[in-house]
Amino acid sequence: MRRLVVGNWKMNLTLAEATVLAGEVANFAGDFSTLQIGICPSFPWLVPVRESVRFMPHNFFIGAQSVSPYPHGAYTGDVSAEQLKGVVTHCLVGHSEQRRFHHLTSNDIQGQIRLLVKEGITPIVCFGEKLKMQKGDSISQLIRDLQQDLSGLDKQEVVAKCIFAYEPLWAIGTGNPASPDYVQQAVSSVKSWLKEYYDQESPRVLYGGSVTSSEAKDLKAVRELDGLLVGGASLHAKEFKEICARFGGRVS
Ligand code: PGA
Hints:
The protein is of the alpha/beta class and 252 residues long. The protein has helices spanning 15-29, 46-52, 81-84, 96-102, 106-118, 140-150, 180-198, 213-220, 237-248, and strands at 3-8, 35-40, 60-64, 90-93, 122-127, 163-166, 205-208, 227-230.
């Protein structure tokens, strides 16, 4: 299966900037056939960005940054999974900034995942510890938190359709990425747990947190890692392309 590199644009870029950047990413995506490359613009730019990309390579996708946990109704300011259908193929769920500023609960996360899957949109479920784990620290709290977010969801119908993104909070936007060894340990434990408790044959787990082109090559060597979720560095076409080149290897 292709590894993923996903750009999380957060609340950045004007419409003009977003369409230019999307066009640049779509143009170079075709060069990296071992990767699936995605961008997650802000809500109002999803449709115009999609329409502005004239040639969509098969390995390029557009995703949303969040979704309402409710199907429809009086939720001012929210966007439903049904409304996203046909516009995006993927959607971030439970990003730490959403959890922090919108006080998302595990119930909300479960609702978001359920509704996205119902609409055929792939949830990219973010999780990660607040404080850096020290040698000897147990990874069980990280897994317990994820377990709570997934509780009650059907293993095969729902959890099997998710992609996971391990994003330690201390590494997001700090310029202090987790080391490849650290990532390997967390990703490997979470994958074993997903295999054992969720009967997942091949769960997919990405890493995010201050990824730049300097880390991409070393992260490529992390055996069990299925991709990267890139924030700040995805806002610059040249740097994002370099991350793809180093993580995926230039194929053509
Ligand atoms: P960062 O953000 O790459 O700017 O640390 C990652 C993320 O928040 O997904």
